[in-house]
Amino acid sequence: MDVFKVLGKRWNGMIIVALLQRPARFSELAKMIDGITDGILTDRLRELMAAKLVERQLAEGPSTAVLYRLTPVGEDLREAFRELHAWAGRNNIGELCNP
């Protein structure tokens, strides 16, 4: 799979950066990513799950809440995103989230 088909798609990088911070419920992700619609978030999460970067996990406790989290493959992107953040800082390429 071409890496840019997944990582280059709008919103996917922001979803990954959000999940690098911690696993999150759908509603939490929607709040963390300004401007994303529920429909787009649903589609992008499906794509990231198909690419084996994100997985669904049932939250512990009596509720049936679902958490989204990075897989070990997704976690492997942490250093790459740190490097991108550092590169953007060195080159004044806008403000990026700190993974």
From TrEMBL:
Q: Which UniProt keywords apply?
A: DNA-binding, Transcription, Transcription regulation
- In this protein, which residues make up the domain named HTH hxlR-type? 1-96
Q: Which CDD domains match?
A: HTH_ARSR
One Pfam family linked to the record? HxlR
The record's listing under SUPFAM superfamilies reads: Winged helix' DNA-binding domain (SSF46785)
PROSITE patterns reported for this sequence: HTH_HXLR
* One GO molecular-function entry: DNA binding
Is DNA-binding among the key words of this record? yes
InterPro entries in alphabetical order: ArsR-like_HTH, HTH_ArsR_DNA-bd_dom, HTH_HxlR, WH-like_DNA-bd_sf, WH_DNA-bd_sf
Q: Which Gene3D superfamilies match?
A: Winged helix-like DNA-binding domain superfamily/Winged helix DNA-binding domain
- UniProt KW Isomerase keyword: no
Q: What is this protein called?
A: Helix-turn-helix transcriptional regulator
**Organism field:** Nonomuraea zeae
Its taxonomic placement starts with:
Bacteria, Bacillati, Actinomycetota, Actinomycetes, Streptosporangiales
